[in-house]
Model the fold of this input.
Amino acid sequence: MRRKNYESILGEQEYFTTPLLSNSIKSALTQIGEPKPGARVLDIGAGECPLRPTLEEMGYEYCSLDIEQNRGGTINFVTRIDGVLPEQLESAGGFDLLILTEVLEHVPDWETAFINLVKLLKTGGHCIITTPFFYMLHEEPYDFWRPTDHALRFFAEKHGMEVTYSRRNGDGWDVLGTLLCSTSVCRKQKSVAAYLATLPVWVGHKILKYFFKKRTLQCLVDLQMRYYLSNFIILQKS
Ligand SMILES: C[S@@+](CC[C@H](N)C(=O)[O-])C[C@H]1O[C@@H](n2cnc3c(N)ncnc32)[C@H](O)[C@@H]1O
Done:
């Protein structure tokens, strides 16, 4: 999904995940604290650069990298994070902050990507990563992974970064709500019988979606499950 910001919800299937992502990013930026004067951030897999205004308002000097140029032509480095980095980028000195929101699931070579992240980060600098764990296929055929938080920790620590914060976003209500909102009810045949069978399922699906989106029961009932929506992790180069 190529979003312009994290404040509005793009499609129904984003209903549960977007507010969680938005809050995670805000809380990560608060945890890391005010940037020092001249601090530089690299938004990796930046897409339409939805975080640019927030980061610039905070005082960061903003730079973006993506495998392809965006619609506004605002990507500074058109290159892949899991390949050979352009010399101009490597020689530009380390960044204080790296951000990868909903990117690593599209990156096939994590080994090279993490080597590059460490190269691009200043010592003491932070790296904020979010990745989906329960989410529909998107940007196919470039949709490779649904990593666990253990995978992120493994690659980070293997490459000398410390996990300073890690959270699993989304409870059972969010997961089931996302599943419902990613499902369409359709007739399988053009017969009266198929119409009559589909109608109650279609109505039931609409009603269920309505209650999940209203979050009527969420504050009263805990739905426990070993699925969650997305990973949110903050790393630091020690
Ligand atoms: C789902 S979009 C997320 C965009 C943005 N970070 C956001 O939060 O809206 C994934 C982005 O990663 C980029 N991307 C995919 N593979 C990449 C790679 N190997 N290196 C760098 N960027 C990549 C895509 O072009 C796309 O812009």
Observations:
- Strands lie at 40-44, 61-66, 77-78, 95-101, 121-132, 161-169, 230-237.
- The chain is about 35% helix and 20% strand.
- The helical segments are 17-32, 52-58, 87-90, 110-120, 149-158, 172-181, 192-214.
- Residues 1-3, 45-47, 50, 66-68, 80-82, 101-103, 106-107, 139, 142 surround S-adenosylmethionine (CB under 6 Å).
